[in-house]
Predict the 3D structure of the following.
Amino acid sequence: MKTVFLDHVRSKLALHELRGGDGQPLLILHGLGEQSPSAVPISLEQWAGPVFALDFTGHGQSSVPLAGGYTCEALMSDADAVLAELGPLTLVGYGLGGYVGLLLFGSRPKEINGLIIADGPGLDGGGDKPTSPQLLHVKATDLDGSTPDPWALAELASDVRPRDYAADHVRQIETLAGLDVAIVVGSLGRPAWLSEIMTSPVVTDGDVGVGLSTFNRS
Amino acid sequence: MTSSEVDAVRSRLPGAKRPERSRRVDVGGIEVSVVEWGREEDQPVALAHGGFDFAGTWDLFAPLLADAGFRVVAWDQRGHGDSDAAALYTWEADIRDAAYVIDSLKTKDPIPVLGHSKGGGMMNQLAEVLPHRVRAVINLDGIPNKRGFNTQIDRSDTRALEAELSGWLDHRRRAGHISRRADTIDGLAERRQLMNPRLSMDWLRYLVTVGAKQDSEGWRWKIDPTLRFGPSGAWRPEWAIPRLRGLRVPYLGVIGTVKEEMGWGTTPEEAFPILPDGAEFHALADTGHFVHIERPGDIAALVADFLRRVL
C-alpha cells in the first residue's frame, strides 16, 4: 500500500493506493469513525482499475482539527481533493461515506462515473428532520489528537439529512451526469435520504458486485 | 505602521470607541478574542456579531450601552476578527463557542444576550439550548423567514445550483493557499461598501483599521480566507421559526425595513407573528440591515430601556 498526503484547506488527508494499475480508479469512502482498509476488500477485488481509499479529516491517518465543526459538506470537500488529484473516478461509500459520495456526485456530476452505496456506520446521520437542538459535549481528556476525532463522531451522527436536500443532489446527477445508471444502492439500511433518491431513474437497487460490474463497463 | 493614518481615520468617528478590556477564551482547542466595554461590576450583556463581521463592528453601539450602565461583552466568532482560524466551521460550533464565552464570565446567573443578523439567529438557538443561562434575547435584524437569505439561490435551477456547489468546492481547492487581498484603507473600505452600501465611508475606513491588519503590501481583512458564503447546505430557515416562537424569555426584536443584500429581508408582517408571546418589536423605517451602525444612539436607548424593564 502506498500513501500520499494531500494538503487540503487546513487538513492533511491520507490517500491510500490499495492497488495500482491502469484504468478508471475506484475510491473507497469509509464510514463514520472508520478508516481506510489496508488492502482491497474481497468484495471489491473484481474492480478492473486501481483502487484508492481516503481517510476523511479526523479519521485514520488524516489530521485532526481543533475544536470540531464537522459537516458532511466539509468531508465532501475532502473527497473532492482526491478528485482533483486523480481525475474522474467511481465511488464506493460505506455508511457516512455513501452520503458524502452522493453530495460529491451531485456537486461534480460530470466528473464521477458512478457511486455504490453500502451499509456502514453513519448511514443515517441525525435523520431527515431536525430534532431538539443541543450543545454537543466532548470530554477534554478524549481530545488527545488521536483518530477518530470524538468531535467527528458526535457531530456527524447528528447532522440533519433532509429528503429534499438528497433530491436536489440526485436531480443534478440526472440532469448533468449523462448516465443511465449513476448510483447503485446495495445497503439494507434505507434512511429517508436514501429512500428519497431510490425514486430517481438513475438510481438502482443492487449489491456491491452489481455496482462494480455496472461501472466497470462504463 | 502608519499610526498617524489610523489616528486620522479614527478621529473622523469620535463616537466610536475601542474596547476597554480584551482577553482570549479557549473554546476547546482554539481561542476566541473577547472584548468588553463598561464597568466590570455592571450587569453583563453578551453581543454576537453577524456573519463576516467582527466584534469591532460594535464600536459605535457598545460604548453607548456601557454608558447606560451595562458591562458589554463581545467576541469574535471563530475565524473572524482577532480569534483563531479553525479548520472547520459550523453554525453549531459557533453556538458552542458562544457558550464558552458566557461561561468565561464566571456567573451562574442567566444574562441577556444580543445578536445581529447571524448572531441574532445564534442567540435564538442559544436561548433554546441553554434556557437557564439566558435572561433575555435582543435580536437586531436576525429574525428568520421561510425564504432564507436575500442571496439564496433557487435550488431547482440546475445551472445555478451547479455553479454554487462546484464554486464552493473550487474555492476549497484553493483555500489552503490564499490570503486576503492587500489594499489601501480606502480600497478595502470601498470593497466593503459593495456589501454595506448604506454605511458611510468614514465608518468603513474605521472598520478597516480594526478588522484588517497591515503588512508590507498593505491592509488585509483578518477574517479567515478559507471562509466563503454558501452553499447553504442541508439547513432550512423554516426550522428556526417554531423554535423562536417557543422561547420563554423576554424578547426584543428589531428589524430594518430597507432590504439589503446582507440581510434576511424579513418583513414586519413575517416577523411579528413568529416572535415569542409578549415580545417587543420595532420595525425601523428608512433603516437597513445594520441597525446598530446606522442608528447606534436609538438602538442603545431602546435596548437599555428594554433591559431595565425586564431584568
